[in-house]
Design goal:
Layout lengths: L11 E2 L2 E2 L11 H8 L1 H10 L9 E11 L4 E5 L6 E8 L7 E4 L3 H5 L14 E4 L6 E5 L4 E3 L8 E10 L2
């Protein structure tokens, strides 16, 4: 932030979104961070039933987001990736929930009456985040971040994962 306080405009509303980190340096803190999360990433891929080759699983891009009081992120997806992640460096109380929406657009408009709400028929799910949480989710999943109502910054490191040929 100190080097580029303008950042870039993506899904952030009044918050700061860094440019993508330079991931070409294998000795960088960003690369070491990714390597430290490898077991969680591979576990998530396996949980989804996706075939992976660890040697071909790479970070496509990584960035930081700082949301001050009143800042939030609008609904979006991460196209052309397999998995996305949000690691909560700082997550004070009331800093904004991570909100996922059903990717089934047809279901948003017409569906049978629901007798019992459950995780399979939810239209929206809110996740109350804490410092140190790592959220891994399919990149096609629509998601957003609620308004930071705290007086402290919410700081997140996010990245997209792909499998190269």
């Amino acid at each position: 932030y100190d080097k580029d306080n303008k950042g870039v405009k993506r899904s952030n509303v009044n918050g700061w979104h860094s440019k993508n980190f330079d991931l070409s340096d294998k000795n960088s803190i960003q690369h070491k961070f990714f390597l430290s999360l490898g077991e969680y990433i591979f576990h998530a891929f396996k949980h989804y039933g996706w075939v992976i080759n660890p040697k071909k699983t790479v970070i496509k891009e990584m960035w930081a987001i700082i949301n001050k009081k009143g800042n939030f992120n609008v609904a979006h997806i991460h196209p052309n990736c397999y998995m996305s992640a949000a690691y909560y460096v700082k997550a004070p109380k009331n800093c904004g929930e991570f909100i996922v929406e059903s990717p089934n657009t047809a279901k948003r408009y017409t569906y049978p009456k629901i007798e019992n709400d459950n995780e399979l028929n939810m239209q929206v799910a809110n996740i109350d985040v804490s410092e140190g949480d790592l959220l891994l989710f399919p990149s096609y999943l629509p998601h957003k971040v609620g308004i930071n109502e705290s007086d402290k910054d919410r700081i997140v490191i996010s990245f997209n994962v792909e499998i190269t040929n």
